[in-house]
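quick one before i forget lol
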Amino acid sequence: MAGQIVFLDIKIDSQSIGRIVLELFWEKAPKSCANFYKLCVDGVRIGQQTFGYKNNCFHRLIQTFMIQAGDVVYGAGDRTVNKSSEIGRGGCSIYAKETEIEARNEAPEPSASVQCYGDFEDENLGEFPEPFMLAMANMGAPDSNSSQFFITTSSAPHLSHKHSIFGRVIHGKSVVRTVERCKVDSDGFPVEAVVIENCGEWQQSMGIPVFNTSNDTIGGDVYEEFPDDDLNFDKESAEQAFEAASIIKNSGSLLFKQKDFHNAHFKYTKSLRYVNEFIPETDVNKDYNAKFIDLKAKLYLNMTLVQFQVQDYEKASMYATYLLEMSETSQVDKAKAYYRRGNCHYAKKRFDKALDDYKSCKENNPSDEVVDRKILESETRLEEAKEKTKKNIAKFFS
């Protein structure tokens, strides 16, 4: 069974987010892998009950630490919507016996603290030096594994030699990060249900669907969605970081040319994330500080244009405003931002605001003849609106 890979398709509330693909370490942790694989593929039927990961919820999320799921006793079905004090206290492995479950269910006063069936021994108790490691979540004692598991989102040395490590994330790291960043209550329980809507064995032909980002490699974008997770460039090098951010931005522009505005926006957002992460201070690297600032301005302009194309004029206006609020921006870029924000106001029939922005565009780029026509059009629309108002008032008093 060595080499088998599984997937988890995740949704948050009613929105599908994407797929996490996990490589299993069969040689190092065969019992843990066999258990996880079976619970992913079709679950295990014990007596009259079926236990599995499909429709199971993540019940504990801690940023820069881990995301946890796998309570197949209490964490499925409608329990994923309404928090219960029981979630996180249950589990069932493929090694559980029907008599074990029957005995627990038939007890006069079943224990409300923990209900885990088929506990099995620890394996591969190693180190946790990096994120995206897959491990069993035991019940706080040795050899108390059942079905609960976690994926690390950072190094976790305090967990070393305490949990069975049996796999790693090979695709879908951005999905893990999205889950990690979900809003939670004081117990780490997500405010919106985070659910494994589908799972099973993964084949390369199945792909890695993702719905809140773009994994298209057009233009050479091979970079991870979140820069901390990427291993393709030296993060200490401003030059390499700038090259990565530029490649991602150009990838978005290629998608824009294909009129794939949705994924173009994802690319621009990703590039902006890299810019904000790696822009150096002026006293550290003045040249690359200026390059990053210029790239950031271009990204805001492109994001404005993308949102205008999909007729989300408020969001388009927001990105133009972000550029105008930047302290160091060229007059040409400011002119473009005023012009594009003016177009947003014009589309929403806010002709007075459109006129103000078009005039500001003209101030920053006096040679722009196109904006002259826009100024005239806005003035005409304002005069028409005034005349209409006068006629309506006259009718009221006639």
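fyi The mean pLDDT is 92.
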